[in-house]
């Protein structure tokens, strides 16, 4: 079997799209919960819609991941680094699933329906309940800060691979525009 | 790999680059989250001011005292040509509601509050939600959340005297001539002896969206059908819960009804300005009757879990760019977040008797 050195284009595309959406959502989320500005209402609608999109995207990525061959980590990585790489990716996927889900649940707990882009009404998963709202609202916030921390680690590690070690890891997720 | 001095410098530059990228990312996120302060008034500032130094845990930070209501809205279909919401098609939808009084104290005497409110929450069979909080004044005093924050600050008790400072209040209203309509209402307003005999206003305007997607700005009001209007001193001896007792007695006899009246704006009316009244000759549409049949104490009542955020709107009603209206979303959410967490943790903060 030929050795794979980079991720398939589908995985790269979804990775960078997720990155763009999630980082925008993190900044939007922490700003909009404070803001009294007239953009706040629109931002909130957008936040819920994009949250639903991220949830769909991460499900597709997980399925995609099951069926694709992924490039191996460089042979000279320590066991510790291998473990950190694996663990951080599992945590990233878990948070990308659980954060939008906690947002959806907190809306339901507040007696509200999530309607991404006004296209459809997502089903209510739980009945309205103020204590459930407290749980999911606080989780949504705590997990968001955790996600930001793991993203910082992820970017630091990617840059370390790309700029310091100069191995194949960062390259494997970049688009190459070859002129051959 | 050789480690020549040049190579070493190069690596240091690369480390610096990584450091700068990460530092910028972390700093900008913390900045966005408000950890270095915020030049604008935030939802958290508002709720802090409203709840005062000693919040009543588990209660709403504004309009803390009230009762839950159950009832139905019987639409006559007259508003259906203006709004595509199924709520306005001839027929009926149940609602959860709340009568309340202004202020952060859930034990305040009913008759001391300057403002009374009527809030409604609908969930339609097609999964749409509509929440509205209506107040006795038809306008607010100011146009922006910043000015509203100044107003609340001026009206807050002075820490030294425990009472609002009249000179600050006077200075505030002088600096804000747009408050004239509000102050005029306040001077002529006579509180009545019942929640059922007050008129409640949406204050902010919204857009009604018809089936073709055309919009028309409108305000609405709950206009009482009860005809036994009396000044509030009729129940002056009924104790701190005078309005709640009156409501309970009234509902034991018969339902409490309001007409839901919509006022449609003309081209000349500014739908983004909640400080002005529109002229009396504007088209009025009676959309139907709000029929309240039951009430419950609020803490275990059906309305306790609901935040009456006026930006929760069904298809067929949309928010305008009114800055006061748009500021309400984040502030209501912050109040809800705090009391939900306190309810979950069963925190109590029993108010001292006589402190208020």
Describe this structure in words.
The complex is a heterodimer of chains A (180) and B (356). With 180 residues, chain A is an all-alpha fold. Chain A has helices at residues 9-32, 39-67, 79-109, 130-165, 168-171. The longest helix of chain A has 36 residues, at 130-165. Chain B folds into 2 domains: 1-37; 60-323, Catalase HpII,  Chain A, domain 1 (Beta Barrel), CATH 2.40.180.10. In chain B, 28% of the residues lie in helices and 22% in strands. In chain B, a hairpin with a 5-residue loop joins strand 6 (206-209) and strand 7 (215-224). Chains A and B meet through helix 1, helix 2 and helix 4 of A and helix 1, helix 2 and helix 7 of B.
Q: N- to C-terminal separation of chain B?
A: 77 Å
Q: List unreliable stretches of 5+ residues of chain B.
A: 352-356
How many helical stretches of chain B? 7
Structural category of chain B: alpha+beta
What's the CATH architecture name of the largest domain in chain B? Beta Barrel
Question: What is the succession of H and E elements of chain B?
Answer: HHEEEEHHHEEEHEEEH
Residues in helices of chain A, as a percent range: 55-70%
**How large is the radius of gyration of chain A?**
19 Å
| Rg over C-alpha atoms of chain B, rounded to the nearest angstrom | 24 Å
Strand content of chain B: 15-25%
Mean pLDDT of chain B: 93
**Overall number of strands of chain B:** 10
> What's the multimeric state?
heterodimer
Count of DSSP-assigned helices of chain A? 5
